[in-house]
Amino acid sequence: MSASVIKAIRIKAMDFLARREYSRHELHQKLTQRFPESTEINSVLDQLIIDGLQSDSRFADSFMRLRVNAGYGPQYIRAELRQRGVAENVVEDTFSNQDVDWVTVAQQLFEKKYAGQDMSDAKLRAKCQRYMQYKGFAFDHIRELF
């Protein structure tokens, strides 16, 4: 591969990273779509990590903050991070470093979605519990709501 192709890959990767954080896995997929013939993508990504321009832990921190603010629970966020190729130890570090009160997040989502509704109705209560589970909250978090 020529130096110009490596430079083009690096510039495109930096262009992606200028817009938002990406996991290494996501960036690799995007670059592979743009440069399908290239065998230099991994070496370019390694250099970006060395240069401090790409970091899975920084991506995970940013992604987690976005998802918590959007009302998602820990199970959902963990699954999404794994799906984006973030290593399990990085996911665990992210969750241990972020001080999130999941019951409060669940409460805010519950109030936004079901404010003023009568939870004594068993059908509505079951629907609410399924919704909260879908959003990634553990049964303990949901039980706290009721």
UniProtKB/TrEMBL annotation:
Residues 55-93 form the RecX second three-helical domain. The keyword DNA repair does not apply. InterPro entries: RecX_HTH_1st, RecX_HTH_2nd, RecX_HTH_3rd, Regulatory_RecX. Its main location: cytoplasm. Residues 12-48 form the RecX first three-helical domain. It is found in: Cytoplasm. Residues 104-144 form the RecX third three-helical domain. Keywords: Cytoplasm. The keyword DNA damage does not apply. It comes from the Bacteria. Modulates RecA activity. HAMAP family: RecX. Belongs to the RecX family. This is Regulatory protein RecX. The gene is recX.
